[in-house]
Amino acid sequence: MSETLRSDVLISGGGLVGQALALALSHHGLSVQIVDPADPVATIAPGFDGRASAIASATWQMFEVLGIAERLTGHGCPIRAIKVGDGAPDSGRGGELDFVTADGDPPLGTMIENRQLRLALAAGLADAPLVRLHMPATVTTRDIGVHGVTLTLADGTRLAAPLLIVAEGRRSPTRYAAGFSIASWSYHHHAMIGAVAHERPHGHVAHEIFYPSGPFALLPLVDDGEGRHRSAFVWTVAEKDGPGFAKLGDRGFVAELEKRAGGVLGAMELVAPRMTYPLGFHHSASIVAERIALVGDAAHGIHPIAGQGLNLGLRDVAALTEVLVEGARLGLDLGDAALLARYQRWRGLDNMMVSLATDGLTRLFGIPGRTAAAVRRTGLGAVQRLPILKRFFMDEARGEAGDLPKLLAGAEV
Amino acid sequence: MSAATINPNEAAHFGALAADWWDPHGSSAMLHKLNPVRLAYIRDQIDAHWHVDARERHPLAGRSALDVGCGAGLLAEPLARMGAQVTGVDAAPENIAAARGHAAGQGLAISYFAGELAALPPATFDLVTSMEVVEHVTDPAAFIGELAGRLGPGGLMILSTPNRTMLSKLLLVEAAERVGAVPRGTHDWDQFLKPEELTNLLESAGLEVIDRTGLSPSAAKGFKLGGSEALNYLVAARWPA
User: What distances in angstroms separate CA A401 from CA A48, A82, A353, A404, one per listed residue?
Assistant: First the structure.
């Protein structure tokens, strides 16, 4: 029989959320094994992930504690204002709602290319002696026992721990196998994602424009090595229009992009590969089961409209880290039902609220027609005029709502 | 230790529940919810008594611990994971069998003994704990004396027990047992000790009480430390300097 490698926890899934969780746990003295079929070298190659993420300022605080922030120096672009409208920025309907940060306030978020996040996390893990990567590796059998979880890899190696954390993303095979019940629906839209270089500076402003055909977002990135101004785009189109846009050549695609951006950024040029994702919503009623905890997109997949998907996953990371580290200091079995129940109570509601809020937003803005547009304008006007509502939306964007885990307040557990 | 300290009916009652000890949804559900809160108190007392960093993973490394009335090891196992060399004693052989089986599954080396504390080879321990036991023995004074006899020099003793108040009679004995939150027949309210009574027993055994903290229900967390002692309380004691 092959050897059994033991650790405090096993993480299935070595993506952004799985790696951040491994770093957070090992930072507090817990040993971790990550298993993932992907080759880690391939996942940091240019072109593997052309997306960018809006890191909420609370999440950034956690990056500071874990030493990820300093590895990202020079790669983060602070968002100082968000303009929300339901027409192109130059149409007179492009800035109904401006969330603007006051001088000295933290930004509404920091835009970072996912590739830079992956590089920073990989470098952090290379310096984390308590983390062992099994990548690429395939799990052949998964045994959830009374006393712990054992994963057997294709080469016969056995990995054992009291808890299996599932960070496998939206189509999580372990979640399916474990029988979690999931609420899900498709938005019948595709998101086209990428980055452009543009003529004029973005001034650290993000634009979210709710076109009748679907939301369109421009998010500021740092200038590239040659000093070109850059922004990421998230462009949602109806499912039926997706293939048409995919066939469009780069030049035609850019012309369409410029039209939707309404000229505020000037002439554009693609600087990252275009990627297309089908959009859906899914939410797991329970995020724990016997000796299993779900984190990130394995637990909840939301519309990318507000850029909150990764932040939700990283809030899972902060809460689960606190629960497990405190549990370990009390000598508890890390798969203890009382610990998992605490994680469920802590994250279940927040995930549900953000998921439903973004779903509601998508639906409100996804309804075509003049009346709906009028309702939207009235609604946005109301938010603009009511400081309490505005504060709520800004705090949500910063990730500061709810009972804050210590890591998100910039403190160790 | 005299056999009189073990109430045979009590031992049989808990022995019958042995198989269920480790099922977080079974008849011990309340205990599983209570356990992290009690452990938080024990950890705080350990850190304060031996000046350990709160972030230390093994605060009891190099120390011995005795848990009296250990059940199936709900406290003994965490103490072992905190680094202690743990001995668990329980009057019900069924409990000890469940405890041994569970510790083996968890890969923990814990010494378990069924029966009288006196049957244990003569030894003293750095940490002596006894959770929710003193209210079940026939002679509490003799029992506290036996516990003190096992506490080594410089050691720390931690006890928990329900208070004898109208609230505990109403909530713990009547309501909780009737709705099944706590198994029927678990408590005999007349045997409960008020905090001053327990303090007197400890002082009569030559110990000094260094802390007393209430443990009460909390809407948000199930149970919380601090606040009212009316339902349940924890006590920490040591040898006077």
Answer: 33, 18, 11, 7
Q: Which helix (H) or strand (E) holds A300?
A: strand A300-301
DSSP H or E run through A241: none
**Domain boundaries along the sequence of chain B:** 8-238
For the CA atoms of chain B, what is the radius of gyration? 17
Instruction: Among A288, A290, A330, pick the best mutation site for testing chain B contact (most B Cβ within 10 A).
Output: A330
Residue B71, min C-alpha distance to chain A (Å): 16
CA dihedral B73, B75, B80, B84 (to 10 degrees): -130
Q: Do B36 and A338 touch (CB under 8 A)?
A: yes
> Tens digit of pLDDT for each residue in B143-193?
999 999 999 999 999 999 999 888 877 777 776 776 676 777 777 888 899
Rounded to the nearest angstrom, the minimum Cα separation between B62 and chain A is 15
DSSP one-letter string for B168-181 = HIIIIIIIIHHTTS
How distant is the Cα of B194 from the closest Cα of chain A, in angstroms?
A: 28
**Whole-prediction pTM:** 0.88
Question: How far apart, in whole angstroms, are the C-alpha atoms of residue B96 and residue B119?
Answer: 14
CATH superfamily of B8-238: Vaccinia Virus protein VP39 (3.40.50.150)
| Chain-chain contact of B40 with A330 (C-beta, under 8 angstroms) | yes
pLDDT tens digits for B100-155? 999 999 999 999 999 989 889 999 999 999 999 999 888 999 999 999 999 999 99
Mutate to test the interface with B, among A147, A291, A326, A329 (most CBs of B within 10 A): A329
- Residue A172 C-alpha, separation from nearest chain B C-alpha, in angstroms: 27
* Rounded-to-integer distance, Cα B41 and Cα B226, Å: 10
A-proximal residues of B, 3-32, CB under 8 Å: 24-25, 32
Q: Locate the DSSP E strands across A135-228.
A: 139-144, 149-153, 158-161, 164-166, 182-198, 205-211, 214-221
The crossing angle, in degrees rounded to 10, of helices B140-149 and B195-204 is 50
Q: What are the tokens at B104?
A: 């083996």
- Tokens matching residue A96: 């109904």
CA closest to A342 among chain B residues: B221
Asked if B131 contacts B195 with a C-beta cutoff of 8 angstroms, the reply is no
Is any Cβ of chain B less than 8 angstroms from the Cβ of A147? Answer: yes
Task: Decide the pairing of beta strands A52-55 and A109-113.
Answer: antiparallel
ipTM of the complex as predicted: 0.90
| Contacting B residues, span 206-235, partner chain A, CB-CB under 8 Å | none
Are A287 and A299 spatial neighbours (Cβ–Cβ below 8 Å)? Answer: yes
Q: What is the mean pLDDT of chain A?
A: 85
Closest CA to A361 of A230, A208, A141, A226: A208
SS3 content of chain B, % helix, strand, coil (to 5): 40, 25, 35
Q: Does A146 touch chain B (CB under 8 A)?
A: yes
Chain B residues in contact with A327 by the CB 8 A cut-off are 36
CA-CA distance, A277 to A365, in Å (whole number)?
A: 20
Task: Say if B53 is an interface residue toward chain A (CB within 8 Å).
Answer: no
Question: How much is the CA Rg of chain A, to the nearest whole Å?
Answer: 21
